[in-house]
Each structure stands twice: as structure tokens, then as C-alpha cells.
Amino acid sequence: MVLSLLTEQPLTGYGIIQAASAKTNGMWKPSPGSVYPTLAQLVDEELVEQAGEGKRTEYTLTDAGRAYAADHAEELTKAWDSAPGTSEATEAFIESVGKFMGVLHQFRTAATDAQRTQAAAKIDEARKALYLILAE
């Protein structure tokens, strides 16, 4: 993933995280704990070089890195196949889940016990209805 992104342009570690998230439409956002050790390893293997310090450190492919990327272009492209991004239906679903979580929070903090009992029954109904959809 890192090599693939660096074939497109030089990036900071944070830029790599953001680019991976953008390329997968937010489905995958690698953690700094996975990106920075990978960058350090690629620097040690002389596939990547760094310029700058701290947050402004930018990483670019070396000549050896560009050759590796060219030799493994198909493999680098396939790395993204496991995270194809989201469809409009998935984005709408995620938005609905967020709205649902908001109302659940209101029930947790502002509802009476009677309202929570009614809500629990409705949630159970919804859970069963959703399982029926999956069973189709």
C-alpha cells in the first residue's frame, strides 16, 4: 500500500494515512502504528528515502523503489482490491446507523424507564426484521 501510494507522489506519513483512506472511500484508514514502522523498514531496504524532519518528513521512492514498483505493478494494484471502497447504499446505511446511534444516546440519557422499555421492544422488532432481510 505504501509503495503503491508513493508511486503517485511524495507523501508524509500522515499523507499516506489520508491517501489510503481517500482511496478506499473511508473504508480503511491505516494507523500511524502500522504506517511509520513500514516506512522505516522501506527506508532500511532502500526502497524509500525521507527528506525533512518531524511532521514534515516526506517520503519518496528511490530508484530501487521505482524499479521494485514497476516490477510488481500488478501486485501493487491488487493490494487495493481487498478494500474497494463504499457504494452509495453502504454510505446511506452508515449514515442511518449514525442517526440511530444518536437516538439511542438520547434514550440512554434522557428517557424514562417506561420509554426505555418501549424502545427495547422496538429494537428487538427491528433486529428480527433485519435478520429476515439477511435470510432472503
Task: Give a verbal description of the structure.
The protein has 136 residues and is mainly α. It folds into 2 domains: 2-78, Winged helix-like DNA-binding domain superfamily/Winged helix DNA-binding domain (Arc Repressor Mutant, subunit A, Orthogonal Bundle), CATH 1.10.10; 88-135, no CATH class. Helix content is 68%, strand content 7%. The chain has 7 helices and 3 strands; from the N terminus they run H-E-H-H-E-E-H-H-H-H. The protein has helices spanning 2-8, 13-23, 32-44, 63-71, 73-78, 88-110, 113-135; strands at residues 11-12, 48-51, 58-61. A 3-stranded antiparallel sheet has the order 1-3-2. Helix 2 crosses helix 3. The chain starts with a helix and ends with a helix.
**CATH-assigned homologous superfamily of the largest domain:** Winged helix-like DNA-binding domain superfamily/Winged helix DNA-binding domain
Q: Helicity range of the residues?
A: 55-70%
> What is the subunit arrangement here?
single chain
Strands of the widest sheet, in order across it, are: 1-3-2
Strand content: 5-15%
CATH architect. name of the largest domain: Orthogonal Bundle
Total separate domains: 2
Protein name: Transcription regulator PadR N-terminal domain-containing protein
